[in-house]
Specification:
four-stranded parallel beta sheet; Rossmann fold; 4 strands
Length: 87
């Protein structure tokens, strides 16, 4: 299915596991630039590796930040001020 999301930037919060990871994987499959978010570098790296197993050429960015906190939101906005998709 082509959802016309190629090269759109997608921030998927809590995407290091569960539904968030599968949303990130689906967006990567659509050609989006996916920001993979988790609370630890290890969880983000593991999620990125998992997505790359399905889509080796995926455009992925890692983001370690707890977006349930003000500091985490500040870090997210500082690194990625412009996104097209928020999930």
């Amino acid at each position: 299915m082509d959802l016309q999301l190629e090269n759109k930037t997608a921030l998927v919060t809590a995407s290091s596991g569960g539904i968030g990871l599968e949303i990130a994987r689906s967006l990567a499959g659509e050609g989006s630039v996916v920001i993979v978010n988790g609370r630890s570098q290890t969880s983000v790296d593991t999620a990125i590796a998992s997505i790359r197993e399905s889509f080796p050429n995926a455009k992925l960015e890692g983001l370690v930040a707890d977006n349930s906190t003000e500091a985490g939101c500040r870090e997210t906005l500082k690194r990625f001020p412009d996104v097209d998709i928020l999930a």
